[in-house]
Structures are given as C-alpha cells and as structure tokens.
Amino acid sequence: MWNTFLEVSKNNPFASPVHTARCENQQEMKPLVPGRTIAAAAVPEGDSCEFGSAKYFALCGLGGILSCGITHTGIVPLDLVKCRIQVDPAKYKSVVNGFKVTLAEDGVRGLGKGWAPTFFGYSAQGLCKFGLYEVFKVFYSGIIGEENSYLYRTWLYLAASASAEFFADIGLSPMEAAKVKIQTTPGFVGTLREALPLMYKNEGMSAFYKGLVPLWMRQIPYTMMKFACFERTVELLYAHVVPKPRADCTKGEQLIVTFAAGYIAGVFCAIVSHPADTVVSKLNQEKGSTAMDVAKKLGFMGESLTANEMTGLLGVSLISLVMRRCLYWQLVVT
C-alpha cells in the first residue's frame, strides 16, 4: 500500500513549482489537456529530494515547524495587543493605545507574555499543516486522477488544506488556550509551566480543548483561503505579471513572487478568520464558558470587524503569513 502511495505521489501534477512535466520520451508526449501545459512537481536533480518520498514529507513538516514557530513567536507583542483588544475593547482602544497600556502596566517584558505556548503550539501546528497538506494533496490527487487534479486544482488545494488543518488544530488547541489565558486574564500566571497545571486543576482537560471547535472555525477557513489563494495568486503572477516563465526565474525572483502572493493571501485570510478568532479569545479568557455562550454574548455585530480589530488582525495575519511563506520557501524549495 505504501509503495502504491509513493508511486501515486511521484506521478501527481503538483510535485514542483518550477518545472514542466516531462516523460522519458519527450517527443511522444501528448498534452493531457489540449492547449494546456501541466506543471510538474520535481525540483532540479541534486537541489532537494524526490517528491513524495519520506524525506520530502519530513522536510515539509520541518519547514512548517520552523516557519510557523519562528514567525508567530516573533510577532507575540502584536498578537498580545490584538487579543486584548478583542476581549476588552473598552480598555484597549486601538493597537497603539494597547501597546501604551501594556507597557505602562507590565513594562517591556509584558509584551512577551505567551511566547512559550505560541512557539510550541504553532510549531506543532506547522508540522501538521504543511506536512499533512502535501500528504493529502498527493493522496487526493491519486484518488481523482492526474487530469482532474489539474482541472480542479483549486478544489484540491481546498480539500487538502482543510484536512491538514483539522489535525493541526488538535495539536495547537492546548497551547492556544494557555497563550490566551496568559495574555488576557488579569492576575493570571505569566509562564507556560505555571499555566498548564493551574488550568488543569481548575477546569480539567476541557480547559485545553473547549476552544477546539471555534479554533477549527477560525483556522480551517483561514488555511483553505491561505493555500488556495496563495497557489492561484502565484499562478496569476507568473502568467500576467512576471515577464518570463517561472523556470527561467532566479530563486531570488521566485522569492519576490512568493512574498507578493503571501501578502495578498494574508488580506483575505484575516477577513475570513476574524469572527471565530474573537470567539476563541473570549472563550479561553472566561472560565466555564462555551463557544455558544460566547457567540450569544457577542452577537453578530460583536463578531464583525471594528477598525481597531481589523488593524491588529491584518497586522498579525499579513506579517506572519508573509514571513512564514518566505521562510518555508527558503527551507523547503531551496
């Protein structure tokens, strides 16, 4: 079964962002879809590893760990202010005001609250998100066939990303709960090693997974938008903006395209994920609450974007997504 899975992965049309598919006998090759050229999924020999191999999936997972863990940890101060605006907008009136209040109350060290659960949680999420995304993309491509994988590639991106994020959030949920509790609950402990046993003592295991469903509601649409929008934006940029084929671009030029596509995708991700993001923040702040309780309390307009929340959420989403994509590209593609 594993050999079959690897064989399918080697022949699927998404193995590489930089080369065109070629059979052993190039002259006898006929277009799979008349008038269209399918992108192959193999990097130049010697540059990386064979697509669909165990090493390939391991590198994707490692790239996800490093890119997600590093980038999310790097923007903890901005994320902290965003969460506080969501749970207490009366006190934290804007992003700038949020930084001023936090610095006045907690000092510079206060801006780093929640860095440990952020790093460990998003590293686990990155492992599953990027590693399993490639696994599910290969798996679904093998089910629907090579031609349909190209024709309906957007749906393939959406299905693979949703499946990967489902498992990624199970790994993220306990650390996300601890992070939000540390960042938004006045008088609560300030370190991960203190927070975990205290949360378990007060609420049991539900403390770590009561936010899982709203986390799915936030992250699955976010990830679906991120991967699908990113992949299609890259295609459009190479087709209509970049003046030469992707295969002729240097790695530096490809990185610029990756940066631009990540920025565009980040805007849409922030808008899509905001309502559930607010629920997650409120849910993990309030002891004994449920997702339905929080949603009823906030109401529909309470979950809509305010200017201040939009600024914070866009900042977090754009910076993290662009940094993550560029770092992941550098780690895996190069």
From TrEMBL:
Source organism, top-level taxon: Eukaryota
Gene Ontology terms: biological process: mitochondrial phosphate ion transmembrane transport
Gene Ontology CC annotation, any one: mitochondrial inner membrane
Subcellular location: Mitochondrion inner membrane
A family per Pfam: Mito_carr
InterPro entries, alphabetized: MCP_dom_sf, MCP_transmembrane, SLC25A3/Pic2/Mir1-like
Solcar repeat ranges, renumbered to this chain: 55-139, 152-236
GO molecular function, one term: phosphate transmembrane transporter activity
Entry keywords, A to Z: Membrane, Mitochondrion, Mitochondrion inner membrane, Repeat, Transit peptide, Transmembrane, Transmembrane helix, Transport
Membrane topology, record value: Multi-pass membrane protein
Keyword Membrane carried by entry: yes
Family membership: Belongs to the mitochondrial carrier (TC 2.A.29) family.
Known function: Transport of phosphate groups from the cytosol to the mitochondrial matrix.
Name of the protein in question: Phosphate carrier protein, mitochondrial
Protein source organism: Cloeon dipterum
